[in-house]
């Protein structure tokens, strides 16, 4: 199976190694490993479940944090018209990823001249 090149910094890789050690203790107990004789496929399944859930939670938190933050003015420029943010209205967005479903609320915006609603997608949501 082909795998993308790892672009994580050494600091992030080190932090993930620490998290993995801690999770092994939570999953397997104080010995931090399964009983002797446990099939590798079982360890692999648990590892993939942990990894995919970490990826899903990471993406979920990231897009929601981005959506909750301040929208840069350039993201509100649509065909030369500046949009206005409607802070009281949101659009539920759901994306299916290999790690699972990601859901978050995007602020609704409106173009004054054309009266069109749109949801600005910044560089982190598929671009």
Describe the structure.
The protein has 2 helices and 4 strands; from the N terminus they run H-H-E-E-E-E. The protein is elongated, with a radius of gyration of 21 Å. It is 38% helix and 26% strand. With 127 residues, the protein is an alpha+beta fold. It has a domain of 80 residues. It has a 4-stranded antiparallel β-sheet with strand order 1-2-3-4.
What is this structure's SSE topology?
Elements: H1 10-28, H2 40-68, E1 77-78, E2 81-97, E3 100-111, E4 117-118
Antiparallel strand pairs: 1-2, 2-3, 3-4
> What is the count of β-strands?
4
Helix content: 25-40%
Helix count from the secondary structure assignment: 2
Write down the overall mean pLDDT.
82
Low-confidence stretches: none
Q: What's the SSE pattern?
A: HHEEEE
Instruction: State the end-to-end CA separation.
Output: 25 Å
User: What structural class do the secondary elements suggest?
Assistant: alpha+beta
Principal-axes geometry comes out as elongated
Strand content: 25-35%
* Radius of gyration, whole Å: 21 Å
Question: Which descriptors apply to this entry?
Answer:
about 130 residues, alpha+beta, four-stranded antiparallel sheet, 2 helices, about 40% helix
Short account of what is shown:
The chain has helices at 10-28, 40-68; strands spanning 77-78, 81-97, 100-111, 117-118. By secondary structure, it is α+β, with helices and mostly antiparallel strands.
